[in-house]
Amino acid sequence: MTNIILIVLFSLLFLILLTVGICIHVAKWILHPRSKRKPLDVWPDQDKLSYDKISFLTEDGIRLRGWFIPKQDSHKTIIFMHGWGMNRGDIYKNTHFLHDLGYNLMYFDFRALGESGGTVSSIGYLEIQDLQAAIKFLKKTYPQASEKIGIYGLSMGGMVAICEGAQNPDVSCVVAEASYYSFRRVVTRWAWVHNRVPYLPLIPIVLHYIRQELNANPEHFSPRYNVSKISPKPLFIIHGACDKLVPISQAKKLYRKAGHPKQIWLVPNASHPKCAVEGGFEYKQKLAEFFQKYL
């Protein structure tokens, strides 16, 4: 009888340790995406666009790198932000056409991704500091180009755009594409889609370790708590109708919470983050119309 009890206890202990080990592995994989740091494969000069290579420090000392593409005599700049596991080249391909419409364009890599420094990616919480540093750099280095600033964010970048757009008076308008609704939900969905990790009992433990490592609760900075504060600045929500990572219902919730002026476009057949690919010319047209109207 004693042996059976010991076997049961050791089995339970093993399962507990295994569960904790899996959770720590998932949390570290999210926060330290070394395998997601891919090299750039496009540059503005390939499209005959002159540009400045830029770099600047965040408040916590991370060196970020990017491009500034000037438009002669323009006082308006759009800042672009990519998603988790991406780099600035991924969004440059589908947005640099806006330069011809009279805008300066600024692209940078978030921390731990692309050519930027750092090793921790927080899916939005720390990246808010990255955007804040980018805006400060733009205003100091290119003051004439920063009289009006629009921001565009894709996926994780969309979350950052919503949160900083809600707080920063220097931001004139916001485009958020494929943004998640809450940090807890996106981690839950990501873990299931990529690794079939069930919510119970694993995800609460994963979230606990993420909070410990960041020394903060990223959930408090979720778009769900900030999107209503963007108004009266204009907001444009773009979302793929077939997005499995961030379901379309999350975009609809953000839209309902947002104040006016606001608009939403649910792109047919688009997965995460393929709105530009599926939207084609209409994608460029809608993006151009929004910035021409509000920036």
Structural commentary:
The protein has 295 residues and is α/β, with parallel strands linked by helices. It has a single domain, classed as 3-Layer(aba) Sandwich (Rossmann fold), CATH 3.40.50.1820. It contains 8 helices and 8 strands, in the order αβββαβαβαβααβαβα. The chain has an 8-stranded mixed beta sheet with strand order 1-2-4-3-5-6-7-8, sandwiched between helices. Helix 1 (2-31) packs across helix 6 and helix 3 (127-141) crosses helix 4 (156-167). The radius of gyration is 20 Å and the shape is elongated. The chain starts with a helix and ends with a helix. The mean pLDDT is 92.
* Largest sheet: number of strands, sense, barrel closure: 8 strands, mixed
Cα-to-Cα separation, first versus last residue: 76 Å
Q: CATH superfamily, called what?
A: Alpha/Beta hydrolase fold, catalytic domain
Spatial order of strands in the largest sheet: 1-2-4-3-5-6-7-8
Low-confidence stretches: none
Percent helix:
40-55%
Please give the CATH class: Alpha Beta
What best-fitting shape do the alpha-carbon axes yield? Answer: elongated
Total strands: 8
Structural class: alpha/beta
What's the pLDDT, averaged over the residues?
Answer: 92
Strand content: 15-25%
Count of helix runs:
8
Computed Rg: 20 Å
Named CATH topology: Rossmann fold
The structural domain count equals 1
Order of helices and strands: HEEEHEHEHEHHEHEH
